[in-house]
Amino acid sequence: SKAQVFEKGKGTDVTFKDVAGLEGAKEEVEEIVDFLKNPKKYTELGAKIPKGALLVGPPGTGKTLLAKAVAGEAQVPFFSLSGSDFVEMFVGVGASRVRDLFKQAKEKSPAIIFIDEIDAIGRARGKSNSMGSNDERENTLNQLLTEMDGFGTNSGVIILAATNRADVLDKALMRAGRFDRQIYVDMPDLNERKEIFQVHLKPLKLDKEMDIDFLSKQTPGFSGADIANLCNEAALIAARKQKPFVEKQDFLDAVDRIIGGLEKKNKIIT
Ligand code: ATP
């Protein structure tokens, strides 16, 4: 439900093994894992540990997955909320949610806070294109900035935020001591699609080894989320046909179905 904006700081069992491709991004977040695990290594030398990093990239490329993997690898609790949950909220609720979330994370530190779709609250102030008042959104954004400034460096809480529209974000968010690092999470290329297939084929019952090269070549423009969806769709199609295994034809049927869906989606946008 809408009221359940954040998970209450449970750990995650996601690790870097679950995140296929994204080698550059993984390398960058490995440093964040180390900040969480070995803070003294940095603080004893007088270093300030960064408070936040922005994960930037198209939808479905694994930003949420990567943030969960950081928490999973560091074995720290994961607190999350989504910017879209704050749209049309009653006055004061957004800001108090943000305050609560930071309070809980500090109590459980070291911890990760993950803010998905930060652009929904983090658009440049005074430039919102939404109808009606955006005061509440601005209150929420201001509270977020206040919280980030309010806890000391080396508090043990690191905030990851995800967006596919870094260009619309309020510049104040990117200032030093806030989200001053940007990590790019791009669409997968052919080889990365192969790696993503390897992850998502694993749970399926296949008749023989699936030709991953072939599947990867059939899926240009697919994100990681599209590939995960494709694998599950293929299994659903096979099950519907009472098959004991998922076969190549089921994947081809699923590709058709998903490409059909993607085209429809694009038609609505343009
Ligand atoms: P959005 O911007 O739409 O929130 P996102 O970038 O946060 O998307 P995720 O929610 O992390 O994307 O991805 C959705 C699902 O797609 C994941 O839970 C996973 O199953 C699959 N997936 C996406 N990217 C990858 C990847 N690089 N490796 C393995 N699985 C992936």
TrEMBL record:
The record lists ATP as bound by G57, P58, P59, G60, T61, G62, K63, T64
Q: Where, per UniProt, does this protein localize?
A: Cell membrane; Membrane
Family per UniProt? In the N-terminal section; belongs to the AAA ATPase family. In the central section; belongs to the AAA ATPase family.
The record's note on quaternary structure and interaction partners says: Homohexamer.
**Protein role:** Acts as a processive, ATP-dependent zinc metallopeptidase for both cytoplasmic and membrane proteins. Plays a role in the quality control of integral membrane proteins.
Record protein name field: ATP-dependent zinc metalloprotease FtsH
Q: Which organism is it from?
A: Lishizhenia tianjinensis
Note the residue range shown relative to the complete protein: 195 to 464 of 694
